[in-house]
Write a structure and sequence with these properties.
- There is one protein chain.
- The chain is of the alpha+beta class.
- The chain is built from three helices and eleven strands; from the N terminus they run H-E-E-E-E-E-E-E-E-E-H-E-E-H.
- The strands form two sheets. Strands 8-1-2-11-10-9 form a six-stranded mixed sheet. A five-stranded mixed sheet has the order 3-6-7-5-4, with no helix packed on it.
- Strand 4 and strand 5 form a beta hairpin.
Length: about 180
């Protein structure tokens, strides 16, 4: 035998479940096309933002193993969940850090890399029309194509993955400078 109070509870539970199912069935709300959500961070006093969707993970820094003969922007290699992670520095001359405060992880598999950051200041939403074109000096200093009105460089992850500071300079092959005549 069910009481009126018992059936009322069951009815409200079913209604709650129906309401929740309706809410979950609605399409996810996304950012309007004219807005972008970014993660703000600092490297050696320079401010950057990066599209939040490009960041795979933000982790506290861990000790780095140096890589001999690596480009100055390559700080070293860390382990993250049992896998090696190459950690780069956006600072103009490469910092002499053994353990970065934070590591921002981008990409996956063989294309996975991290950027060392001194501070991660949080997320914010930007209107795309507030972004300004970066000038040549900003492009040389870091892989940014746009700049916020307050001067933070919008990191371009596609440029980042191919940035010349992150690739070693070609080494001459042994004996290439000798005259073979």
């Amino acid at each position: 035998m069910t009481s009126a109070a018992g059936s009322g509870v069951a009815g409200s539970s079913e209604e709650i479940l129906r309401q929740r199912a309706r809410e979950l069935a609605e399409p996810a709300r996304s950012e309007p096309a004219d807005r972008i959500e970014v993660l703000a961070f600092e490297v050696s006093g320079q401010r950057f933002v990066v599209a939040l969707g490009d960041v795979v993970q933000v982790v506290a820094g861990s000790p780095l193993a140096r890589v001999p003969h690596a480009p100055s922007a390559l700080l070293g290699v860390a382990t993250l969940r049992g896998s090696l992670l190459t950690v780069f520095d956006l600072a103009p001359h490469g910092a002499d850090r053994v353990t970065p405060a934070w590591m921002l992880v981008f990409g996956d598999g063989a294309d996975r890399l991290a950027i060392a950051a001194d501070h991660v200041t949080g997320t914010r939403r930007l209107d795309r029309q507030e972004l300004l074109d970066a000038d040549a000096s900003q492009l040389h200093a870091a892989p940014v194509a746009r700049v916020t009105r307050d001067g933070a460089g919008l990191l371009d992850v596609d440029l980042l993955l191919t940035w010349d500071r992150f690739t070693p300079a070609p080494q001459p092959s042994p004996g290439s400078g000798r005259d073979r005549s």
